[in-house]
Structure formats: structure tokens, C-alpha cells
Automatic annotation (TrEMBL):
Pfam families: ATP-synt_F. This is V-ATPase 14 kDa subunit. Belongs to the V-ATPase F subunit family. NCBIfam families: V_ATP_synt_F (TIGR01101).
Amino acid sequence: MAGRGKLIAVISDEDTVTGFLLCGIGELNKNRHPNFLAVGKDAAVNEIEDTFPQFLNQDDVSLILINQHLAAVVRLTFGTHSSVPVLAITSKEQPYGAAEDSVLCRARAMFTAEDPG
């Protein structure tokens, strides 16, 4: 990996993954495993549950983008990692859930916290 940058991994619907691939994020590691998973309507939950930890454990992955509704599938794994930031993104097929958006919840808590003094 000397001289190479870090990767963004994507677990998302087919249109979103295609957009990211067109932007140039698609890579295959030395074992020919991609840094993306296009999840169709008939995707098996175990495929998502298997892929997510693989991305967490890859040394060359520095950020994982995952659709918000798919993040709910791997929520237990999502909450226990510490090495790679995970960002839940919206999907055109699923409504945005502000209550499930961890970044928005943290920002809201930061700006609405009671002043201790």
C-alpha cells in the first residue's frame, strides 16, 4: 500500500453505488474483493452482515458510506467498531429518518445541551 491512498467503501442501493463508481472510487484489493456492495431489492441480509465487518477490518478503508436503512441491519456491528468512521447516507428508495441519523443526533445534542453554568 505504499504510495497509495485510503479507500471509501460503499454499501448502498445500485444507483448510489453506480454514481460513486462513476466518480472513480471503485477498487479491488489484492484478493479481488471490491470496496463496494450494491444492494438490490432482493439482497440477502447475511450478505450485508458479512460485507460490513470486512470493510471495517480492511487496512486500506478509511470511511464507510452505508444507506441509512441498511445501517439498521448492521446496527449492532455499527455501534461496536472504533477504527473506521461510518456515515449513514440517504437512499432515493427509502425515506430519510432524522431520528436514526447519528450525526444529526450528535449535533442536535451539542447545540441543545443545557449550559452547566
